[in-house]
Every structure is written in C-alpha cells, then in structure tokens.
Amino acid sequence: MKRILLCLDGDAQPSVFDSVVAIDAGVDHLLRHAGVAPADVRELVHGAMFTRGGEALRSTAVFIGGSDMHQGEQLLAAVQQAFFGPVRVSVMLDCNGANTTAAAAVITARRHIPLGPETTAVVLGATGPVGQRVVRMLAQEGTEVRVASRRMSRAEGVCHRVSRAVSGARVTPHACEDTRCEGLIEGAQLVISAGAAGAELFSQTARESCASLRVAIDLNAVPPSGIGGIAPQDKAVEHNGTICYGALGVGGLKMKLHKTAIQRLFQANDHVFDADTIYALGKSIELEPK
C-alpha cells in the first residue's frame, strides 16, 4: 500500500525542505496543506484516516512543520484530539527542524564527553526553538545547564518550563549580551550555540582562552558564525584543544534522524515523534551496529 504523509504547516507556504526529505525517506504521496490552524485539523486528519482502516492505517501518517514551534505544538494537540480508540495514525512534530537539530547536537556532544552530573553545559541562544530543546535534552541527561539569553526574563521562562517537564533539572538562567559570555563559559565543558543567524555569540578569543571547554557546537550556518572561529563544515575538528562542530558538521546526523523518524512513522499507526521521542530515537540510532 502506498505511503501517504499528510503535511500540516502553519506558514503561508508548505516547507519545501520537509517535503524533499519526506520523499527521500520513501514517502509515496504528500498531501501538503499550508496556513493550517488548530480548528482545521480535525477534518483534515479524519479525511486521511477514514479512507483506511486496520493494518492499513499505518500507511498514513501526519507531519507537522512550519516556522512556529508554539503553533506546531497546538497543531499536534489538535491532531491527537482527532484520534479515537485504535483509529489513529502516527504523527511527527519538527517545526523548522528544531527537534531533529537539537537532538543531533546533543547526541554529537555525547560522542566526546559524558553527559551527566559531572558535566556543565552552556546553551547560547537558549530561548529559540532549537535552544529550548537542547536545554531540555541536556537536562534529561542530568547535565548542569546554564541557559543564556540576551533577556533574563526569557532565560528564566525556559528554565521554568524545563524544570516542570524534567524532574530534577539543573538549569540556571543567565543574561548574556553580545559576545560578553566569557564568565558564563568558564568551568563549562560544553557550549552549544543555537542563536539566530547573523550574530556572533561567543568570540574566538574567548573560546580559545577557556581552559575547561572540551566541545563547542555552533548550529548557525550563516556567516558570521555563532561561535567565532568555527566553520559551518567543521566536524570533530580540534581548535586549541576544543573539539568543534559547525552546523553542516552536525547536519549529517540531523538529516539521518529526520529521515529515520519519517520511515518509523509507517511501522505502526500509533507513534508520536516529538522532542523527547526524537531524542530517544537518535540515541538508539547511535547504538546500532555500524
């Protein structure tokens, strides 16, 4: 039976990127809908489900994209509310690639340092969609996380939400203006920059002078780099004793995870891939035999 992916996007145009990845992951047909609001979801989902039943339901799935993660979470809730009993299909939430990108970044860090109580991490640009999920995933590992934003109130908001979601989360908010983050990084073994494109958040000089830093990951692919001296294509490149990754260096794992999650949607009709389950999937992929 043909694999059908119902793509629900809150933006004015459906994501071309998400569509291409889905096709490369083996989806046969895409039903792409733009400008979707929560009130629209029930009819769209029922139209996808009621044409198939029983085992055939697993050949239909829902992907929620768009640029607004908050809106995406509302769409995910509406999709789940449209299900009843065993009549459901699998669904994935990955607005702007935030969940798969964050998972890829944290899993990349795990390759080089243990994530747990002995590790301190700094997340720059931590209040954006990717940054918030990086904080959450690190907190799940028991890592101490310094949550940095230009506005303290926004950093505090992230810490509050993560603490409610992750029992025992060790997260602290910090205000970090421009590239003046030297004091914040001191004593940390890991820094992940997830800020918006076009802003350097941590200078090369500061990075090179931080003796404790072991891994630095910059998720910004647009010049200037979020972390000075890291090129987008850097992949496990050592700079002054620190293992560095740029956005493209992490991108291979992000793409593998994105495609794998799409493929797993069609293995059953009851999968829900959100930030937590995408991260768990990524860790399981890492453990698979090479």
Structural write-up:
With 290 residues, this protein is α/β, with parallel strands linked by helices. It has two domains: 4-97 and 253-287, Methylene-tetrahydromethanopterin dehydrogenase, N-terminal domain (Rossmann fold), CATH 3.40.50.10280; 103-250, NAD(P)-binding Rossmann-like Domain (Rossmann fold, 3-Layer(aba) Sandwich), CATH 3.40.50. Helix content is 40%, strand content 20%. It contains ten helices and twelve strands. The chain has helices at residues 16-24, 38-49, 69-81, 98-110, 129-140, 152-165, 182-185, 204-209, 247-265, 275-287, and strands spanning 4-9, 29-33, 60-65, 90-93, 120-124, 144-149, 170-175, 190-193, 215-218, 235-239, 242-245, 272-273. It has a seven-stranded mixed beta sheet. Helix 5 (129-140) links the parallel strand 5 (120-124) and strand 6 (144-149). Helix 4 (98-110) packs across helix 5 (129-140), helix 4 packs across helix 9 and helix 5 crosses helix 6 (152-165). The two termini are 30 Å apart. The model has no long low-confidence stretch (mean pLDDT 93).
